[in-house]
């Protein structure tokens, strides 16, 4: 998968993943507060934030595997940093990354419009929910509650991963730091024209 | 023998597979026995300070409690469940309560296994082991290591930014739109700096002859020995034994009518 990647792209992907791993760990605290207030569905409200690096990396680098790898690496770094985050999180990261990657794959990694980015966030939501259903035993909950959790998570994926990810990446493109990446080039074209 | 010496990749696999097996059962005894087992291992072979362990474990007690009450309040009702209490849309059943407790204990069993891993594994050793045993591409592994080493620098930059904002009289954000704006003021420059650093690092690595080729040699070699596999087998058998004990006691509950 990495054969067609330049070292520059791989290091940028890893650094993005490391930065967002820290963000993810911080959001775990916020998640716990919401969890305390609303029960299990509390996590789902902000679940989208945990998919954001997939969207950002894919939107910036635009290569097959960007969404999957960035999310997987972010999860691995969380395990390295996190004091109580075990290796099973890497599997969660892979599954979330695959959800977004599947959507980008459906467009043959050609379309990065707002709708596709939101759909990719939703893809991560769907995949991660299936995994959570098994590992966290949602089967013991009433179907109505589980359905509500699912829809909240999908919405969160579209907004907090898809839209927020797009917004942050474009803010980043404006600084000129992405000038050697597809998103930066696209941005430069639009500005000069 | 110490848990610190077990090969990190094999340790990680043993824990992931244990968690997958634990996810199959909906009874309180299986996770409970696993908790006892992993506690014994952590404190007998982990050289772990109890205070540090407790600090990490405490938040999970709270999470487990919330699992219990959510499952109790919103249980999947099944025919033949004994209703304990009913009020409006809330129905408390004995079975719902038991499943809630099992999910809570499941969370705690995952936590004890996770903490056993993180308190006995050095981050860089884990990465080196993933590269040497699990064929993680060196390009990616060294990229992660470079990013990992950037963290203190990024933290310093964050403090500089904070100070700069303060000097220029940027008020503390109070409302939610202000907070979002503030977040953007921090996140964009930090990310831009990180990306520029990453590009420079890549250039430096290539100019020093890093090709990312897979058949390379390592200064620090992480090995696999018979003890590592012994640990693996011991872990998996312990979880299976937990389920067996639960079955003998008549508690074991699989996915039966849940799907």
From TrEMBL, chain A:
This is Energy-coupling factor transport system substrate-specific component. It holds the Pfam family ABC_cobalt. InterPro entries: ABC_thiamin-permease_prd. Keywords: Membrane, Transmembrane, Transmembrane helix. Signal peptide: none annotated. It comes from the Bacteria. It comes from Neobacillus niacini. The chain crosses the membrane at residues 7-27, 33-61, 115-139, 145-164.
UniProtKB/TrEMBL annotation, chain B:
Its main location: membrane. It is found in: Membrane. InterPro entries: ABC/ECF_trnsptr_transmembrane, Cobalt_transport_CbiQ. It comes from the Bacteria. The chain crosses the membrane at residues 12-41, 53-77, 229-249. GO terms for biological process: cobalt ion transport. One of its GO terms (cellular component) is ATP-binding cassette (ABC) transporter complex. CDD domains: EcfT. Keywords: Membrane, Transmembrane, Transmembrane helix. Pfam families: CbiQ. The keyword Hydrolase does not apply. The keyword Signal does not apply. It is a multi-pass membrane protein. This is Energy-coupling factor transport system permease protein.
